[in-house]
Amino acid sequence: MDGSIGIDTTEVDFKSDTNYNILTNLVAETTNSNGYKQPTNTNHGGTIALPRDQNENFHDVGTLFKQPLIISEKLESPYYARYKTDYFPRGGKNVGQPQSPRYVRTVDGDQEVTIEFPAGYKVPEHLGNYYLEIALLTVPRETQHYWHVHKLQSHHTDISVPDENPLMVPLTKEHFESGKVKLVVIKAKQDELKEFSSLTLFNAETTSNWTAECKTIEELGHIYELSRAKIAFSLVFQNSNGQYIRCTDTTVMSNEIIEKEKAKPSDDITCPGCSRSFSIKEQRKAEKKRSASASTMSKQKKRRSQFNQEII
Questions:
Q1: Vertex 24: Cα angle to 21 and 29 (nearest 5)
Q2: Could you write out the DSSP letters of every residue in 179-220?
Q3: CA 193/CA 201 separation, integer angstroms
Q4: One digit per residue, pLDDT tens: the chain, 312 residues?
Q5: pTM here?
Q6: CA distance 249 to 66
Q7: Which residues have C-beta within 8 Å of that of residue 139, sequence separation ≥ 6?
Q8: Pairing mode, strands 180-181 and 244-247
Q9: How distant, in Å, are the alpha carbons of 92, 281, 300, 304 from that of 295?
Q10: Scanning 149, 162, 193, 289, which has its CA 20 to 30 A from the CA of 303?
């Protein structure tokens, strides 16, 4: 990652003896005093969002936690969201063969999204507790983002690895040097969408006066505008209880991306003689009309013939 981009600050050294138990207690005291309850929806990782006014509790791990991450390029829109069976077919000639995924691309067509750290950072000596949280969210509704129903593919060749939202990527020194991630959006199935009547707030320590009680899948998609999305990147650490603590000051949002609809197969054919295009569907309709008209004329002709015979 290019350290020349971002807010120009002087980074303090990360302490090698950082006491995560102390940090965990500070977070617990903060969240309990604010009446915060941990989200119970395990689909969203149960991440605890540290309120912005409490980030000073993390002074022991440096100012990296006090600055937003940086997305080097805007994301391409529209983007592809596909069902799991599109990448892992259950039938046909490609059954059992993982298919090439449709990555979320940058506007320059790059399959890798580059996340950069603020200028002046120093790599933590022990990275075992640090993660990059990648969250697929709805566009703002009443100024609030909600967890999207789609997920991010965790493994592109092993179907046994569950898809997640958010996706927790363990940080390595390579991430600090290059910061590249590949993202594939897995579309929620219809039976999964039936389980939702409303969606969960991204920052659960915030409050909202707006709620939804969607009665149909169509209503859910319309109210939350599920064809549109944003991707949030945040720095988190995992405490001794296995809880992920999101530092909200580090969160950066992507630009809005719109889901690309699957192209409907064309029914046009081209005449080899005149090069004109004809719709098979329209030709079939016309053929049915001609057949119906011919049948009617035949019946009328038959009636006239019977009438003439009766007169004779």
A1: 125
A2: -EE---EEPPPHHHHTT-SS--BSSTTS--S------SHHHH
A3: 17
A4: 433 233 333 333 334 344 445 554 554 444 444 433 333 333 455 666 665 555 455 544 455 567 889 999 999 999 999 999 999 998 888 888 899 999 999 999 999 999 988 776 667 777 778 889 999 999 998 888 999 999 999 999 999 999 999 999 988 888 777 788 999 999 999 989 988 888 988 886 666 666 788 899 999 999 999 999 999 999 888 877 888 888 888 899 999 999 998 766 555 665 655 556 666 677 777 777 777 666 666 666 666 666 566 666
A5: 0.70
A6: 5
A7: 145, 225, 228, 229, 230, 256
A8: unpaired
A9: 42, 21, 9, 14
A10: 289
Query: At 145, is the secondary structure helix, strand, or coil?
Result: coil
Structure tokens at 253: 């949002």
User: Measured between alpha carbons, how far is 177 from 232 in angstroms, rounded to an integer?
Assistant: 20
CA distance 101 to 87: 6
